[in-house]
């Protein structure tokens, strides 16, 4: 990994071989601090995101076998889990927000209060594991991959969506940093910050999965935005600075940028599926 200098929430490193990026800090707990993040983030999630994820999953999964055990890691509000459970699958969820766990348990859906890459205790094995915008948040990615391998049954399948480090947004972030001699890093602060500590390329993600016993069988670059259009330039989570001190102007900038990006169909994420060998 090559040291690319300081960014607002740590030090940026980039792999010269695959282009994946990582943020390092003396306080990794601070990088992935959940205090105030979960509720703040969920309030800003676009209602279109979950529907797009459900459609993506349904396109690449066959519901013929109703005995499938599925685990959704980082299930948030639980809309994806509820949807696939209604199709007859046996579902479980893992979440680090205790309120979300209690909410799902009240709906009689099996939910665990623990965290991938941390102290993860589950009482069963799974045929399918889904990670929708999760792995970029995990500081100890090696431990997380070992855990994923251990909870999947033989020939079990993993579904991942995560930001793409080869996207146009990363290129623009690099240009902004270089042109301003690192004095302005507003785009970078959206891409990599105290919450997003990894940013994988397709090549880097393939290498990671192969290293931990998975064979990739589908890769797709896609456009999938998590938050509402007026959010990205307006301080979308605690500790992420707004672009200016004018909230209305920030929202206008964000809506304008997102409208243009969507109209041009610029991709920003990787969708990848892999099988445990």
Structure explained in plain terms:
By secondary structure, this protein is α/β, with parallel strands linked by helices. It has a single domain (2-276), classed as Rossmann fold. It is 35% helix and 25% strand. It is built from ten helices and eleven strands. It has helices at 28-31, 37-43, 47-60, 79-85, 98-106, 141-151, 168-179, 186-191, 202-211, 247-263; strands at residues 2-7, 10-14, 21-24, 69-73, 90-95, 110-113, 126-132, 152-163, 198-199, 214-222, 269-276. The chain has a seven-stranded mixed β-sheet with strand order 6-5-4-7-8-11-10, with helices on both faces. β7, α6 (141-151) and β8 (152-163) form a beta-alpha-beta unit. α3 (47-60) packs parallel to α4. It is globular and about 55 Å long. The relative contact order is 0.16.
Uncertain regions: pLDDT < 50 for 5+ in a row? none
In the CATH scheme, the class would be: Alpha Beta
The CATH architecture assignment turns out to be: 3-Layer(aba) Sandwich
Structural domains: how many: 1
User: What overall form do the CA principal axes indicate?
Assistant: globular
What would you call the structural class? alpha/beta
The largest beta-sheet arranges its strands as 6-5-4-7-8-11-10
Report mean pLDDT, rounded to a whole number. Answer: 91
The count of strands amounts to 11
Largest sheet entry: 7 strands, mixed
Strand content: 15-25%
- Percentage of residues assigned to helices: 25-40%
Q: Mind telling me the C-alpha Rg?
A: 18 Å
CATH topology: Rossmann fold
H and E order:
EEEHHHEHEHEEHEHHEHEHE
Multimeric state: single chain
Q: Would you identify the CATH H-level superfamily?
A: Vaccinia Virus protein VP39
